[in-house]
Amino acid sequence: MSSSIGDSLAAGVDRVRNSWRWFVAVGIALVILGTVCIVGNVTATLATVFAFGCLLLAGGVVALVHAFETRTWSGFLLSLLSAVLRGFTGYLLIRYPLAGEWSLTLLLASLFIVGGMFRAIGAATLRFRRWGWAALSGAVSVVLGVMLLGQLPISSLWFIGFAIGLDFVFDGASLVAVGIAMRGMFSGRAFAVA
User: In whole angstroms, what is the distance from residue 16 CA to residue 30 CA?
Assistant: First the structure.
């Protein structure tokens, strides 16, 4: 079973091997964006809350229009309720950014912990070339999530921007490493399958 998964992933990597420059370019862009977020962590936190609120508000308006366009549908009431809830949540994030920062801090902490665990375990299980970078990226995300929960509520003022920036930097570094490894895979197998 693990051999077929490894073979499937090796075939997928072989298909995108010629795109290694994109991996490196996106990785460098993430490192630069992450550095900007780390330096301006309070601003990045407020921008994140504001952007998320605007997206929810816009999504609520679109969903509200959709609900009234399909009002003869049996799920109209559920669609309407979903649109109102989405739009109201967006309004609250824009109107009360400090409460929004605290709420998003909880969501980000869970994202970092769960996503980091999956990334680290997946990299350690698949053991593709330079898998250690992806595993390290996952481990750093888990540590960030735990730190974030431990420092609430003060951390919600600045840590969202800092954590997103740091996660971008490590994700970017892992993409650069994978891109460089892909460039070097002109012969041999991409994965060591045990």
Answer: 20
What is the rounded CA–CA span in Å between residue 78 and residue 98? 30
The CB density around residue 75, as the number of other CB atoms within 10 Å, is 10
Measured on CA atoms in the order 106, 108, 113, 114, is the torsion positive or negative?
positive
Mean pLDDT for 165-177 is: 90
Q: How far is 72 from 181, CA to CA, in rounded Å?
A: 55
Q: pTM above 0.85?
A: no
Buried b (16+ CB within 10 A) or exposed e, 16-51: eeeebeebbeebeebbebbeebbebbeebbbebbee
